[in-house]
Amino acid sequence: MFTNVWYVAARSEDLQDKPLKVRMLGCDFVLYREPGGKAVCLSNVCPHRGGSLAHGKCKDDGSIACPYHAWSFNGEGKCTQIASRRGEDPQDVAPGVKIDAYPTEERYGFIWAFLGDEPENAAPIIDMPEYDDDGFRSTTTHSEV
Ligand code: FES
């Protein structure tokens, strides 16, 4: 399994204002957009009790809230709020709690995610200079297995 490469996680048009569950390399991830539009990719499994973040809610502060007990995580995977302990630092309540976060890039109408642990050694996203060339036309297809 090749993890140290960029994978297409979704078409840009498919990620709007709600979280989107995607499956890559046999694992589930959630994509969502921060208020500025940047795509975020996190593991879909909440570290509290395994809730699916894809069924959660995007918040105005750029985090996503789990639908189960509303723990919130930002785009870097840091736990930013434990709903039942509002006003307390989540790192004091549950030291070290975080969720895996993955770099994203948006290019050529796709959201790309890097799932490996060596971004400095990764091959770059494939170069497609024709994409912006009026002399070329692009098409995409989507299939589910
Ligand atoms: S399972 Fe996600 S907050 Fe409890």
Please provide a written account of the structure:
Helices cover 3% and strands 30% of the residues. The radius of gyration is 17 Å and the shape is elongated. It has 145 residues and is mainly β. 27% of the residues are buried. The mean pLDDT is 94. The strands form 3 sheets. Strands 2-3-4-9 form a 4-stranded antiparallel β-sheet, with no helix packed on it. The chain has a single domain (6-114), classed as Rieske Iron-sulfur Protein, CATH 2.102.10.10. FE2/S2 (inorganic) cluster binds at residues 46, 48-51, 66, 68-69, 71.
Any descriptors?
single chain; 145 residues; mainly beta; 4-stranded antiparallel β-sheet; 11 strands; binds FE2/S2 (inorganic) cluster
What quaternary form is this?
single chain
Query: By helix and strand content, what is the structural category?
Result: mainly beta
Percent of residues in beta strands?
A: 25-35%
Total E-strand runs: 11
CATH topology descriptor: Rieske Iron-sulfur Protein
User: Into how many domains do the coordinates divide?
Assistant: 1
CATH hierarchy: architecture: 3-layer Sandwich
Tell me the major beta sheet: 4 strands, antiparallel
Lay out the secondary structure.
Blueprint: E1 6-11, E2 20-24, E3 27-33, E4 39-43, E5 57-58, E6 64-65, E7 72-73, E8 79-81, H1 90-93, E9 101-102, E10 104-107, E11 110-114
Antiparallel strand pairs: 1-11, 2-3, 3-4, 4-9, 5-6, 6-7, 7-8, 10-11
FE2/S2 (inorganic) cluster binds next to loops.
